[in-house]
Recover the amino acids of this structure.
């Protein structure tokens, strides 16, 4: 007995419980690990042939590459803690800053230029700094300087990043520096981003400094100044995190099954019956699995379909929070001209200037990719699709999508790339969730969580609720798993 709790009885109760996690993306796997650690019998059911969801790996021209998420934001330390728990800490790597940071392309009258260092979400601290002026010109710099001369600024929580930057620094800073960052990092317009969430501490710094640029100087002296904050990766690819999670869950006695799409959740007393569909051409037959509790870790649409029938209309009454569709075209090219990484680790675009949203020169950004590719071979990821625009690759065959990506890459990197230089390509489509910093998202997802919690012994995790990004999904999945298991273990 500890503090009146019978630990042996609790352990026995855990061993009797069975939880089914639906969806084997990072959210589902992290929550499954939380259950397995306590000795709860957990089964993960993943519809696809492989776990991972937006963490996807594949071969292109003989190279094994991340085809979806390729890094994690270091903020909060949650992903690093998970990586450490899984024994992968020694393989954590940082981007190759020696090649320079990201560039911005599509600047009217300028073309492409390095994204100024030291900013916060693209907002510069000093509008007259050479690298800032190169992008916004003298006119833009003087307009931004008005920020220092205007009455002292304080912002409320309702302010949008777009409104804030437009009013204090003018449209050149907004269109040429901030919009490329929010579009590239969040697939969203600055008008839809809450500065308080996207740049924690900015609000307080503004109150302290009295101006937006002053606040940025203040903040950037304290924190990493990469566009979306500091990121790291795993040597060999972020997909290794998925493989390590599956291995650890199985080691702890949990079960991870792939090619098992869940079609329906049915009430069975206090618990659940999970109905899985058969997939044509696979051995698995349609089946039902009994569970004391379920955690739905799928995309939003599937989660709603599965849970809504059990929430008395509460979930269906809420509008979806659906995010953009994104295509990532991975190109492997042979090009001596790219050896010196002419545009650093990658290129963001001024919205409307190109058909691509952003490009990552993966073999310049990550040493492990460069070493795998070998001399003269480069890996480039071109992304298409934002909140306001379907991907320009929509409806194209994979070959034509690759040619469009090659054309965009040539323009964004300032280096002619021909189809003869293309050694391989692959296009992957994703339904991306909204960023946590999207204005109103918190209220929407709080309402969705409340509706989900009206059903007993069901939880839901994943980017549609936590906001996109591993740094959001991981801690949220741990918290939700804890809520579900406590309700189960301490149920009267
Ligand atoms: C292209 C792209 C690049 C990204 N890059 C980064 C990055 O570099 N760094 C970063 O931190 N974040 C990045 N993100 C965001 C991050 O990858 C996601 O927020 C996170 O991986 C989402 O995890 P999830 O578990 O919520 O969902 P998902 O990864 O979508 O997983 C959901 C899973 O549920 C399964 N499923 C669906 N329906 C069913 C069903 N009926 N039955 C069983 N299973 C089902 C799916 O097959 C899928 O595997 C990126 C996202 C995208 C799309």
């Amino acid at each position: 007995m500890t503090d009146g709790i019978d630990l042996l009885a609790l352990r026995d109760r855990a061993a009797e419980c069975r939880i089914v996690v639906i969806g084997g993306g990072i959210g589902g796997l992290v929550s499954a690990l939380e259950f397995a650690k306590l000795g709860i019998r957990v089964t993960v059911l993943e519809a696809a042939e492989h776990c991972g969801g937006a963490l996807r790996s594949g071969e292109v021209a003989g190279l094994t590459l991340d085809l979806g998420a390729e890094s994690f934001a270091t903020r909060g330390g949650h992903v690093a803690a998970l990586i450490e728990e899984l024994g992968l800490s020694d393989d954590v790597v940082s981007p190759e800053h020696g090649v320079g940071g990201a560039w911005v392309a599509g600047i009217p009258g300028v073309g492409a230029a390095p994204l100024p260092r030291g900013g916060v979400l693209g907002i510069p601290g000093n509008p007259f700094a050479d690298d800032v002026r190169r992008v916004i010109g003298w006119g833009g710099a003087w307009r931004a300087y008005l920020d220092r001369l205007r009455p002292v600024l304080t912002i409320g929580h309702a302010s949008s990043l777009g409104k804030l930057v437009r009013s204090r620094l003018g449209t050149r800073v907004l269109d040429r520096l901030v919009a490329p960052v929010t579009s590239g990092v969040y697939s969203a317009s600055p008008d839809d981003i809450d500065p308080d969430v996207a740049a924690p501490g900015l609000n307080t710094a503004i109150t302290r400094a009295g101006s937006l640029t002053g606040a940025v100087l203040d903040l950037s002296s304290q924190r990493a100044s990469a566009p979306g904050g500091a990121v790291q990766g795993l040597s060999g690819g972020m997909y290794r995190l998925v493989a390590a999670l599956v291995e650890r869950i199985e080691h702890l006695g949990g079960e991870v099954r792939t090619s098992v799409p869940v079609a329906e959740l049915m009430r069975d007393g206090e618990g659940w019956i999970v109905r899985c569909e058969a997939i044509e051409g696979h051995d698995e037959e349609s089946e039902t699995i009994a569970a004391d509790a379920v955690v739905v870790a799928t995309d939003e649409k599937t989660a709603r379909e599965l849970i809504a029938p059990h929430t008395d209309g509460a979930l269906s009454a809420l509008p979806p929070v659906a995010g953009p569709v994104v295509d990532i075209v991975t190109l492997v090219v042979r090009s001596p001209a790219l050896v010196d990484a002419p545009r650093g680790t990658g290129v963001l675009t001024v919205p409307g200037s190109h058909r691509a949203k952003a490009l990552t020169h993966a073999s310049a950004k990550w040493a492990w990719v460069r070493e795998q590719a070998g001399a003269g071979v480069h890996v480039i990821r071109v992304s298409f699709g934002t909140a306001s625009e379907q991907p320009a690759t929509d409806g194209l065959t994979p070959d034509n999508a690759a040619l469009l990506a090659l054309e965009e890459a040539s323009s964004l990197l300032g280096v002619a790339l021909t189809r003869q230089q293309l050694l391989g390509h692959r296009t992957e489509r994703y339904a991306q969730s909204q960023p946590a910093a999207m204005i109103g998202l918190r209220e929407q997802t709080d309402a969705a969580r409340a509706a989900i919690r009206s059903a007993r012994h069901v939880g839901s995790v994943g980017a549609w609720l936590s906001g996109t990004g591993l740094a959001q999904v991981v801690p949220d999945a741990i918290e939700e798993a804890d809520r579900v298991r406590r309700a189960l273990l301490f149920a009267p």
Notes: The longest helix spans residues 130-149. The radius of gyration is 24 Å. The longest strand covers residues 325-334. The pocket of flavin-adenine dinucleotide is lined by residues 22-28, 45-48, 53-55, 68-73, 261-262, 297-299, 302, 326, 328, 430, 432-433, 462-463, 468-471, 473 (CB under 6 Å).
